[in-house]
Design goal:
Immunoglobulin-like; single chain; 873 residues; five-stranded mixed β-sheet; 8% helix; 37% strand
């Protein structure tokens, strides 16, 4: 269903509901049931739109009967019954849809279909006769049958669709409401259960962000200290001693949340790692929005998760404003929820009490906070098991009235433990003994797939005391799969027994993939995975073992995480420093990262005793696995050159790296939303925001006109204008701005700009394209050039015609920066006109002519003399 079509239908339904509610008020007489019963004439209506429509395009059919049934309201079941829609295609084939009950109080029913055949479609709506069976003055009255027919023209020509593209420039929130498809690149990080595995910690494999994009580059947007950090300075017993970074039990940065482009977190206080102010900063700039003392009420009300709820009812459609930051706390075995307004930090009047404990937590389809709870109302030997779903929207924020009231509860606490707070509660036939949903070792990834199944576990699969909570036993464990489908809720799908893992292994659940139909065991001591079917619980593959050729493989024994299942794969890493990727369907090892050469290595050389940097999964998001370096109790100073890594989740390709030491044993939270990732580094106790930043260009050309035939120099800069470049240190070191550099140079360049590392010797810039609009009004590209380490570029070009030129310089953008452009102009004058050079007068030289004439005269005289002498003889 297209969003635009859905909105149109909802608007129409709301309009019809408003009109029909007014009509129903007029119809209500003040008498008892009619004797004899009334026969009330009904009128049917049906509209197919758009009409005409192109073949292959979606058509919305809306049908209704003139008025709602008297007294119909959201809170009761007084509804029209038995609607039938018959669509006859041009080839006389028919499509028939029937609704036993129409859910809408205004009697409107919608249906969408995609016609593929060109021609005329006949659309008929039939309403069957209905007797009013509810109490009141209309009880027993008859509403007559009615029908309506219309036609639909389907043509070959397609109707134009309104579509706004994804952004091609730097963007911020709010996202204008017509940019529907931007939902694919935007996201929130609301914590668990909305981001499964959020806030990774001991025994916790990492987080899976299901929405939006995540950074493909190491570009830093900003950095922000949360305490004194880094090297203390001066003389101490250990040269270069650092401020304590939190280690394993005083973690400095936990449970970050992101909502509406704002990052929320608690600052550390003293040496505890918690207890400081709760702070909101702009995700893109790091600018502080508000700050509160979350302990001011006498109870530590630190938000646990973010809450965005979409209220969908006949009177409201859309997410309730601002959302909430919900803090949970317990007192005398009672769990309470309080809420802050994320926009202001104000503590609201919402007060929820008796929130059920236990079970597993899940995100509902509209943002509800769901709890799936398994309860035995009998005894261990004579059990009476029930599986129930608690729904937060049944307690607050789910009002059915106009305007969606009830977002805040006011001064009276709302009882979250009431029966009305549950969506369903069904009995489950289980064997005697203790059962749980899922099992130890799974982290916070519950084995519940809404609308499909829940996996219940009894006993352990083998292990040592204390490891993953396993206990020594020889008894087999049991797994039961229970249906969560609406038509078979609570039915047992299958039950299997599983013998203890062989060879004294500690076996735990490593994850599951409902789409692939596989759940996975992990054996800690032998580093083996096993796959079993979710269809019947039977063995499918295994063991899939960590390769013994990796000399650091034995270090995996110290892991407390069991791997993560995502994208149809099982990812395992840990103290070995190697990331292993297996196919969840057959257990085959697909690729490894960390045990190869350049671009595929976690080797630490002499820096650590591990051989490789201990590497753990921080997050999985947007087709990438993000890895961090940490260990249980690191010494001070910390290992040098530890990095945060982004790995392609499909093929194991290294995408980018950036220096960071994570702040949590076996993990480290990194909040991801709107394409940005925020992590904390133990190297300097600062937060770093990673993501695609804005850039700015400048371009100049000669201010004086050039002469035709001469060369002009076009030059300029490409500068990073992310908020971090204006921080005190960066602004002082780069008074002319921080140059933009290539994606390949990001790691060393960002470490130089923000982490006080040496200026890299070799940095590549970015490509700049130069085009001109000439005096003939022709636009053409005149060349490409590269920026240097200073962000500077220049191009020498000889104009080919005279006149005015407008110059366009553009940077197309990269994974690190959004594009930018700049404009300038110059002129070319014609070549100057010059007079002809005067030629000197040439006077003829008669010297040789005279000499010749003289010689000729002498010869003539001589000849004449000879002739005279001959005559005398």
């Amino acid at each position: 269903m297209k969003p635009s079509s859905t909105k149109t239908i909802k608007t129409l339904i709301a309009l019809i509901l408003t009109i029909s509610m007014s009509a129903s008020i007029v119809l209500l007489p003040t008498v008892n049931a009619h004797t004899p019963p009334w026969t009330i004439i009904s009128y049917a209506y049906v509209v197919a739109a758009p009409n005409p429509v192109g073949a292959g395009q979606t058509v919305s059919v809306t049908m209704w009967v003139d008025t709602p049934l008297p007294n119909s309201a959201v809170g009761n079941d007084i509804r029209r019954h038995d609607y039938t829609l018959t669509i006859t295609k041009p080839n006389q084939e028919t499509i028939t849809e029937h609704w036993d009950v129409v859910d809408d109080t205004g009697s409107t029913q919608s249906y969408q279909f995609v016609p593929t055949e060109v021609g005329t479609y006949t659309i008929k709506f039939d309403y069957a006769e209905q007797t009013y069976t509810w109490t009141g003055q209309y009880k027993g009255d008859i509403f007559t049958a009615a029908s309506r027919t219309t036609t639909l023209t389907v043509q070959q020509e397609q109707l134009p669709a309104i579509y706004y593209p994804l952004p091609s420039e730097y963007w911020t929130r709010p996202i204008e409401g017509q940019n529907t498809n931007w939902y694919t690149i935007s996201s929130n990080y609301l914590g668990s259960p909305y981001v499964p595995g959020a806030n990774p910690s001991f025994g916790h494999p990492g987080a899976f962000q299901p929405d939006g994009t995540a950074p493909n580059s190491a570009h830093i947007m900003w950095s922000k200290p949360i305490q004194y950090g880094g090297v203390v300075g001066g003389t101490s017993e250990i040269p270069g001693e650092m401020y304590f970074e939190g280690g394993s039990y005083a973690v400095r940065w936990t449970n970050p949340l992101i909502m509406y482009g704002t990052l929320f977190y608690e600052e550390p206080y003293g040496n505890s790692g918690t207890g400081g102010d709760y702070v909101a900063v702009d995700l893109r700039t790091g600018k502080e929005v508000w700050r509160i003392n979350a302990s001011a009420t006498g109870v530590s009300l630190v938000p646990s998760f973010g809450y965005n709820y979409a209220l969908e009812n006949p009177n409201q459609h859309g997410f309730l404003p601002n959302g909430l930051l919900i803090a949970t706390y317990s007192s005398r075995s009672v769990t309470y929820w309080r809420a802050y307004d994320p926009a202001t930090g104000r503590l609201t009047t919402m007060n929820i009490t008796n929130v059920p404990s236990g079970g597993v937590n899940l995100a509902g389809p509209n943002g509800e906070y769901l709890k799936i709870i398994l309860t035995n109302k009998g005894t261990s030997t004579n059990p009476n098991w029930y599986l129930a779903q608690w729904n937060s929207s049944r307690v607050f924020g789910g009002s059915s009235g106009f305007g969606g009231g009830g977002w805040y509860s006011g001064t009276t606490p709302l009882n979250a433990g009431a029966a009305s707070a549950y969506d369903w509660n069904v009995s489950v036939n289980l064997k005697p003994g203790a059962w749980s949903i899922g099992a130890a070792g799974q982290g916070s990834f519950p084995f519940v797939d809404l609308g499909n199944m829940a996996v219940l576990v009894q006993g352990s699969f083998g292990g040592h005391v204390g490891d993953y909570g396993a206990t020594v036993t020889s008894d087999p464990a049991n797994i039961t799969a229970v249906s969560l489908a609406s038509e078979s809720m609570g039915a047992v799908l299958w039950t299997n027994s599983y013998q203890q893992a062989p060879n004294n292994n500690t076996r735990v659940f490593a994850g599951w993939d409902p789409e692939a139909g596989i759940f996975v065991f992990y054996d800690k001591e032998s580093f083996e995975h096993w796959g079993y079917s979710l269809t019947n619980g039977k063995y499918v593959w295994g063991p899939s073992k960590v390769p013994s050729s990796d000399y650091t493989a034995d270090y995996n024994y110290f892991n407390t995480e069991t791997g993560m299942v995502a994208y149809g794969k099982v990812y395992l890493t840990g103290y070995s420093g190697i990331l292993y990727c297996y196919n969840v369907k057959d257990g085959k090892l697909l690729w490894t990262y960390g045990n190869g050469g350049e671009g595929n290595s976690t080797a630490s050389g002499l820096e650590t005793p591990w051989g490789n940097y201990p590497t753990f999964i921080s997050d999985i998001a947007d087709g990438k696995v993000y890895l961090c370096t940490t260990e249980h109790s690191p010494n001070s100073p910390l290992y040098k050159n530890a990095v945060y890594r982004a790995i392609n989740a499909t093929d194991g390709t290294e995408l980018w790296k950036l220096m960071q030491y994570a702040n949590n044993m076996y993990g480290g939270p990194a909040a991801i939303a709107d394409g940005y990732l925020v992590f904390y580094s133990g190297y300097d106790q600062q937060l770093y925001c990673i993501g695609k930043g804005p850039s700015a260009m400048s371009v100049t050309a000669p201010d004086l006109a050039a002469t035709m035939g001469s060369t002009v120099v076009i030059k300029g800069t490409v500068i990073d204008i992310s908020a971090g470049t204006n921080q005190n240190e960066q602004a002082a070191r780069f008074p002319n701005g921080v140059p933009v550099v290539s994606d390949a140079s990001q790691q060393e360049w960002m470490q130089y700009v923000y982490m006080q590392k040496p200026r890299p010797a070799s940095v590549t810039g970015v490509e700049v394209t130069l085009s001109v609009l000439d005096s003939n009004n022709n636009t053409r590209e005149i060349g490409k050039t590269m920026t240097d380490i200073n962000g500077f570029f220049a191009l020498n070009w000889k104009p080919d015609i005279q006149g005015n030129y407008t110059v366009y310089a553009s940077f197309a953008g990269s994974e690190s920066y959004w594009p930018s452009h700049a404009v300038t102009s110059f002129a070319v004058d014609p070549a100057p006109t010059t007079a002809p050079t005067p030629q000197p007068q040439v006077i003829p030289d008669y010297t040789w002519a005279i000499v010749g004439m003289g010689i000729a005269m002498i010869l003539a005289v001589a000849i004449a003399t000879i002739l005279i002498l001959r005559k005398r003889q």
